[in-house]
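As the work plan foresaw, the team has encoded backbone shapes as discrete tokens. One protein thus recorded appears below exactly as we store it.

:::
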Amino acid sequence: MADIVGVGMSVYDMILIMDHFPEEDTKQGAQESRVQCGGPCAVAMVTASKLGVSTAFMGATGDDIYSDTIMNILASYGVDVSGMRRQPGSIGGRTMVILNTTRSTRTCIGMGGQGVRAQAEPSDIDLEVLKNAKYLHLDASHPAAAEFAAKKAKEFGVRISMDADLSAKRNPFLMQYVDELIPSERTACELAGTSDVHEAARYLMDTYHPEVVIITQGPEGGFILAKDGKSERYPAFPVDAVDTNGAGDVFHGAYVAARIKGMDYKNAAVFASAVSAIKCTRFTACEGAPYEDEVLAFLKERGIEIEK
């Protein structure tokens, strides 16, 4: 059985690594191209799996070749995909990602096409697997399946974490079920209607009542507000970044893995920040996410020992 069940987005990512953004109506070569499985929840599950925590991904995907690749990549990293339904006549999510190595930026272009995107339904949630999990992780996509899973997780006493970004702004009702809410600074401030991260955290706490709000702030680290009113910051780790795409998704997976390993909010956030930093020194999210021994060595080099 899996310690973490993920319900959310999985995407076929075609990644082009270039030294400058392409000019219109020209022919240019990329430095390198790679294919990976993207999507906030999918990348989080891969990250947790690489850190030694058992994971399962539930929901639906299409029956096209892109969906085949999504399934194969997740499985190759040890993510249990037996609960993913192949929806006939549907397509898997697809994204073109252009990494500009000169500016250290990434541009994501969602690809449409003929066919209907597969949508997970409540019937896609394996309740026996969910019941035996320690965490349910959501990214707010596939809202019907996500809400069903969240309600059942509450009944079963399974903790719920959520990447409150992207779809969270379209489906904010899901946040009412969450124990550990982790939005980006941009999303938190947009939801709260403020530019102040402290006010945004308080708004999310007062509105949705999680046990903790952890706002990620990229190179500035992040801000933690607990239900008891205690607030503190966690650090970022300066590195020579080559690819920041997926760094937040990696953070979420590492954070939940750290919590399962027994770390408190602060130490889990510090651990996840280190995981995210290491990932940024490597291309792509799934390949770039480190293993636990690499993270502990990274922290030790910086004089940090994580307490459980």
